[in-house]
Amino acid sequence: MPVYMMTAHAYRSWPEDHPRGYVQRREGLKKSLANLAAFRAAKARFNEARFDMDMQMALHEVIPQIADEFEIKLHATATCPNHIHVIYSFSSPACTCGATKHCRRGCAAKVFGENVFVRMKRKMGQRIAQLKQTSGRKWFSRGWDTTPVRNRRHFEYLIREYLPQHEREQGGICRVHE
Questions:
Q1: pLDDT digits (tens, 9 = 90+) for 106-115
Q2: Across-strand partners of 7?
């Protein structure tokens, strides 16, 4: 059964001049570039999005609803002012790529997992817009990160250490789902 941790960032929360660099779509992590950050900031339609505590609580309401809608197992969620993590698994549709642990791009199971997260992002953005009474404002950056949970040890680390630190150190909320 594939288990994934999906991560989505708040709109413009990881700019190109970030000290650790920035992520370029389909190219990965790049070194920090102040000129590119200034250029993109000038072109941006909205300021950086930040999730306050009310917004984070709303996100934690939406995520289980989507998990139920898709009949997936929700293991844990963490939110903080600038990003979210969702750990979930599912057994259907079955893998069609023959991978032993995690499916390859284009596999029906991987496509399903990503479709779940696309729906989550859309519904979370709609819920925040409703809460903040906005229309047309972007709340999430484009795309997401998919991290396969490699084994039980990795899973336990994410659930017991990594996600809870978002609550302790970053002003977030962490929930483990049974």
A1: 788 778 888 8
A2: 85, 145
| Contact status, residue 24 vs residue 96, Cβ threshold 8 Å | no
58: three-class secondary structure by DSSP: helix
Whole-model pTM: value is 0.85
Nearest residue to 73 (alpha-carbon basis) of 104, 34, 116: 116
- Report residue 83: phi and psi, to 5°: -165, 170
The answer to whether residues 54 and 173 touch, using CB atoms and an 8 Å cutoff, is no
How many residues are listed for the chain in this entry?
178
Burial of 167 (0-12, 13-18, 19+ CB in 10 A): middle
Helix, strand or coil for residue 10?
Answer: strand
Task: For residues 21 and 112, give the distance between their C-alpha atoms in angstroms, rounded to a whole number.
Answer: 31
Helix or strand holding residue 83 (H, E): strand 83-89
